[in-house]
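W.,

You were right to be curious about this one. When I first looked at the sequence I had no strong expectations either way, so I just let the prediction run and decided to look at it fresh. Below is the sequence, 336 residues in total, followed by the output.
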Amino acid sequence: MAKARIAGTGIYAPGAPIDNGELKRLAGVEFDTERLEAKVGIRTRHVARLRGIDETTADFAERAARAAIADAGVDPMDVGLFVVGTDTPEYVSPATAILVQGRIQGGQRDAGAFDVGASCASFVTALDAAALMVAGDPSLNYAVVVGVYDMPAHIRPGDAFGWSIFADGAGAVLLERVPDGHPSGYITGKLVADGTQWDYIGVYAGGTRKPVTRELLDAGTWGLELLRNLPGDRNLKLWPPIVRALCDKGGVPLDGVGAFVFTQINRSVIEEVMGVLGRPLALAPMVMDRYGYTGSGCVPMAFHHAVRDGRVKRGDTVVFCASGAGFAVGANLFVY
């Protein structure tokens, strides 16, 4: 049986980086810089809106996708599937992936295009779906999977929490169909969900339950809303058992994994998780210091840098693990 392997990676973040001091001035907010840098790990980020750059989700996704395609040395016209994982799409409809396909291929092609929305687990969920599609369809040789985030477009004025944490960015991978005997390839995925916990944090306005109205805008109940505080130990409890279950499912011992790429939401949490797993912290690439929190973009962005920096090499077994509001959690296991 064939399988999918990652043949190329690409990333994009808009404009010059914004450090914490400049962020306070541009956004007009105050927050604990020392705690943000020491505990969460965020020092700089990229935000198109604060730089006055006219770019949004589809622009970020397109640039990352083009970079991944070029990195793999593939003709863009040969890509048969475009999947975008995000919970900050360009529009409610049509899907952002459709826009990306049109921009890259210039018109109608025999190519599929759809979005995956699973909060900040959107990219890992999309990767699992796309890898299985590539493996199962002999006519599908290449697929692009993008994780992208533009939560700053939904942050309301004066929201110090939102501005200090969330940032813009996109990461993409180019999947290639290869024979079963190939040394690289996707092994398996693991998904977990609990939809009873939908009412913590999200962008609740703009859908059918809460259409945007003048009254809603005047009341300020639009954009990113924190309805309840998230449990501080949620990811510490979620990630280790999911990673272990993923490795068991894929038949790979935990000590056989060469890199663990987690949601880049909090450096201290990743440090604790690696301790629980009993694996060296050096095996967990982190990029929140330079990009802030880029939601579904952060896992492929961290992986891209790990590859470029030589921390992940061909033949290494890699785990992706990401979680998002709602809640949704996803994990991927593959040989790079």
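Here's what jumped out at me. The two ends are 18 Å apart (CA to CA). And, maybe more interesting for your project: The chain has two domains: 3-178, 185-335.

Coffee later to discuss?

I.
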